[in-house]
Design brief:
mainly alpha
């Protein structure tokens, strides 16, 4: 705009002075890199927005007064009875099977 619409010579500067655009270019570079990092992270990590454990009433207490152990059953050697016996042998306060939909 200063070189086309209002070509005024102020303080001996040329019509097109690139120094005025450096802060804007820097800010756009930072914004673009932050957005690229965000979308790259979401693309590569593929976050899971829902998990079947969220339906458990015991899971709602996990941040209040204890911790939570979840055992996934995708392994072909997984045995639900052996896992339940192990958890009860170490005196778990609550053991629950949560079915995935």
């Amino acid at each position: 705009m200063t070189s086309v619409d209002y070509p005024l010579v102020i303080s001996g500067k040329p019509y097109f002075s690139f120094q005025a655009y450096v802060p804007v270019a820097f800010a756009i570079t930072i914004l673009s890199s932050a957005l690229a990092a965000l979308f790259g992270m979401l693309t590569l990590n593929r976050p899971q927005l829902f998990h079947p454990l969220f339906e458990s009433k015991q899971f709602a207490r996990v941040t209040d007064d204890g911790f939570f152990v979840s055992v996934a059953a995708q392994d072909p050697k997984f045995d639900i009875n052996a896992t339940r016996q192990f958890l009860e042998s170490i005196r778990s306060s609550h053991t629950e099977v949560v079915e995935a939909e």
